[in-house]
Amino acid sequence: MSRGEITVLLLFLLLEFSLVQTQPCKSELDCPKENQAVFSATTEIPRSLRPVVTEVFFLNSLITTIPKGAFAENPQLEKVEFINSNISSIELGAFEGLTNLKNVEISSSKLTSLPVGVFNDLSNMEYLVLKSNKLQRLEKGLFEGLNNLKQLLLHGNEIQSIEDEAFDGLGNLLLLHLGKNNLTAVSTHWFSNLNKLEIFRLYENQLTTIPEDIFQNLPNLMEIGLYGNQIEELPPNLFPHKDKLNKLFLENNLLTTLPEGYFVGLSQLKMLTLKGNRLRSLPPVLFGEMPKLTELSFQQNNLSSLPKGIFSTLKKVRKLDLSKNKFVTVFAEYFEGPEKLTELNLQNNMLQSLDEDVFEKLQSLTTLKLAHNNLQMLPGDIFKPLGKLRRFDLSNNPWLCDYNLVDFHSWMRTNAEKLTSPVVCDYPEHLKGTEMNSLTEDQLI
């Protein structure tokens, strides 16, 4: 090999090495830091780790038991995580000696229960993640001693019962996640001492009712997640502390009505979704001043009409979703208040007609969805107030393409670039299936 060929080869190898060195890590654990140790598919917990290691991770391990004193020779540890593991049991004393431990995660394992006292002496623990296991019950004393715990994540288990006082002692807890379990009822006493709690998630359980005083001793709540249950009715005074609440998830329950003035006082709420319930009507007064609310959804209910001025106090709402209901028509008075709407979704209703002034006050609207209704014609200047409209969908309506549609057809052709889906004639028979924008005015007449 000549000197020149050797030089080229060396340059090529240097380039390859450089590319390998600069290739980004897919996750944090692909490129461990000096203080981290990562074990993949291992069958046992190593007795001793390098003295600088404060965080240890077990990924897809074959370990079935965390034995007593598993980390006794590594008192410097601050974080221990078992992710996608085969763990089915944890012995009492498994974490003994780890007085500096702040973070523990055991997720996606075969764990069905935990021995009471397993977390004793871990007074510095701040984050405990036990998600996606097979835990079935929480016993009194299980979390005893975790005085500084801030986040407790128990979602994705099979929890059916919680003993009274199970959460006692967690006075500094900020987040409690019990979503995706098998709870059929909850008790106010379970949570009465969690005074600092900010995030409370009970979604996707099997709750049919919710105690009226469940949030009575939780004055700092900012997020409540109750969606995906089977709740038929909300108690009138369920939210006694409204000044900090900014996220409230009530969708996918069995609600048929809402109490009068139910959301009055929720001045910090940013988004409210009630989709996937069975609401047939709304009370005349439902909302108060809500200056931070920007998104509101009533999608997939049984609403056929709205009280006049129902949204009059919602001046900042930008997105309103009324799709998948039973509206035959809507009126301009429905939209008094949220006059800065940018997106309005009315698709999948039973709309047969719209008054020509229905969008008169919605001059900020940029997206309008009217697909999958029963519209046959619309007034020619119905969209004239919508000078900012950029996207609209009128597809899957039974359009009657005759002389009554001439003015509307003219507007459609002028704004064809804004259509998100083709608009096709259903009647008369000889034009069935023809795209409306391909027709001439003579064909309509």
Which SSEs are present, and which pair or pack?
Blueprint (H helix, E strand, L loop, with lengths): L2 H20 L13 E5 L14 E5 L5 E2 L12 E5 L5 E2 L12 E5 L19 E3 L7 E2 L12 E3 L7 E2 L12 E3 L10 H4 L7 E3 L21 E3 L21 E3 L21 E3 L21 E3 L21 E3 L21 E3 L21 E3 L21 E3 L5 E2 L5 H9 L10 E3 L13 H4 L1
Parallel strand pairs: 1-2, 2-4, 3-5, 4-6, 6-7, 7-9, 8-10, 9-11, 11-12, 12-13, 13-14, 14-15, 15-16, 16-17, 17-18, 18-19, 19-20, 21-22
Q: Which consecutive residue ranges, at least 5 long each, have pLDDT under 50?
A: 17-22
* Largest sheet composition: 16 strands, parallel
The Cα radius of gyration reads: 30 Å
Assess the beta-strand content as a share of residues. Answer: 15-25%
Overall shape: elongated
- The helix fraction, in percent, is under 10%
Q: Order of strands in the sheet with the most strands?
A: 1-2-4-6-7-9-11-12-13-14-15-16-17-18-19-20
Provide an overview of this structure.
The strands form 4 sheets. This protein has a 16-stranded parallel sheet, with no helix packed on it. It has a two-stranded parallel ribbon with strand order 3-5. It has helices spanning 3-22, 188-191, 406-414, 441-444, and strands at residues 36-40, 55-59, 65-66, 79-83, 89-90, 103-107, 127-129, 137-138, 151-153, 161-162, 175-177, 199-201, 223-225, 247-249, 271-273, 295-297, 319-321, 343-345, 367-369, 391-393, 399-400, 425-427. The chain is elongated. It is mainly β and 445 residues long. The longest helix has 20 residues, at 3-22.
